[in-house]
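Hi U.,

Before I forget, here's the chain from the pilot set. I'm dumping it here mostly so it's searchable later in email.
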Amino acid sequence: MRQFDLRRPTAMFSLLVWLGACGSGRAAEPESLSFQAYCGGLDAAEISFVAEQQDGRYHGHLSILTHGMTHWMTRLLVDSDSWGTVTPTGFRPLTFSQVSSSREKNRRIEMRFVDEGETAEKLVDDERRNDASLAPADPDDLDPPVPEEARHHVLDPVTALFEMGRRGMAGEKTFVLAVFDGRRRYDLAVEAVGPGSHDIGGKTYDTLDLKAVMNPLYGFRPRAMDFWKNAGFNVFVGRDIGLPVKISTTTFTAETVIGLHASCRGVLPCPPS
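Structure:
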């Protein structure tokens, strides 16, 4: 079990929530889910995810608000949006955006998918310190660039999780999702473990249990590459709704668990239960 690096909670919670946002978004009305995240048994974050699908198009919205010690350390706020089309072969992204703020800096990323969605093209990558100055261009403090050939046939993180839900619920036993978030390129190797039953928040859910393992490829500094290599996550998808009810990992020193707190349809966002 690797040591938990307090300088990387932003990335960890973002990835965990992206892994949890793998609902199929089948309904015309939006599906809204509210999660609570715990790290080492302590309340760490409030997470909401909204999935909309109508007239051959989809939209996924993710927000993260840290709590407690995690908020004190990071002041992390994240808002991500993905828009795209639904094709006979799956979800095809058109645009992706993410705005995040932390104790030290603010970041905005926007990208689009060109060549009929086959290639990710970054439009905006703006990072500023909280004093409004540009982040220093120190080579040791910059993520390595992602080559163009590594941005072909990729999905943004939110679309990748729509696809995870779709392919898992369709009965695929193993598959790999190629993901590019505007700065980092990685693969998620997914395996369907089988049906399960889990008590979450006082309710029992019949689930499809998945395991996802991260393989960082490009855009990672050496320490981040070591931190994320072979990081494993358990994803429990409610079989009745095709949406996640729990995500957990013991890869890091402190066990992290994200559990469904409330779900609803047609409400943005889902109010607390």
